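Could you help me review a protein record that somebody else here produced? Do not assume that whoever made the record got everything right. The record follows directly below this note.
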Amino acid sequence: MTATVPRVIDLRKEPIEDALDRVERTLQVRLDQATVVRKRRSIGARTDRDTWVRIERRGLDRIGSQGGDGTASAEALHGVTKPAWYGSMAWRDTDEPVMWRADETALLPGQPVGSAIVSEDPGLLDAWWAALNASLGALAAQHTYRVATPDTEAITQELVTRTIGNVFAGVDTLVHQWTPAHADLNWANVTAPEFCLFDWEDWGLAPRGLDAATLWAASLAVPALADRVRQERRCDLESRDGKLMLLFASAKILGPHAHPEDPRLTPARAVAEQTVRELQSA
């Protein structure tokens, strides 16, 4: 019998041979097993034609109006530095309400800067920051009907209000400006020394400043890096909606699932308290 709710699994621990075989047959490629990268909900590998294939498992309840085609639809974005998209395939799991999808793209121009959250300064050059700003500026100027899905959940006004309200009281959480966002901008999804932004599965409309606040939160264990993010993206983070996104990102760190040894707790709390004061006095 087909399950009604998908299992929450970690692809780093699950058998993946069947999925890899299916992708190879359909896309007519050979995946280099030595290059396989396994993450919680995705698998990636280099192919014998010098491309990259990313395979994702996502519950049908997490697809919604997006259709699960983030990487393919991002190909229409102009002025954004990202890998070229070449083709894809998708299939419905026979045992669970889950869709598997594989996208073939160009290889990255460099290595990811680090893990999603960094603990040391990556030493990025000014040219790297200029490229980041150019891409985020170009992205914000695009038009889309997609809704961003950070952490695979559609970002709505209700989600913003609930997430912030669970941690910070007395804040008007009404969002005024919604702009296209990558929605998963962390240090594992950008390359260096040459800048490139990849993994576009969750992109779509989001409150202004979501990407900047997400990268800032991923940098908090390195105060100088977090300060650099705020400086470079001050056009977003000093806006009212950008301040709300600082609280949104902080609430995820400081909320009920906070880890007591997370080095980001203290700096997140300090910035959040200042931001609450600014919003309440505006």
Summary: The CA atoms of residues 148 and 271 lie 25 Å apart. The chain has a mean pLDDT of 93. The radius of gyration is 19 Å. DSSP finds nine helices and nine strands in the chain.
